[in-house]
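Bumping with the actual sequence this time:
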Amino acid sequence: MQAGFSEADLERRRSASRRLAWLLGAIVLAIYLVGLFIKR
């Protein structure tokens, strides 16, 4: 197994992580906004 990652691999992982973070943030925000409209 290779010990380190090449720069291209690291950049690919970073961009994938950024996309995942934005996606999770959008889902959390959507759940929060939906919660505002649901009366308990």
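The tokens above came from a reply further down the thread. The longest helix spans residues 7-37.
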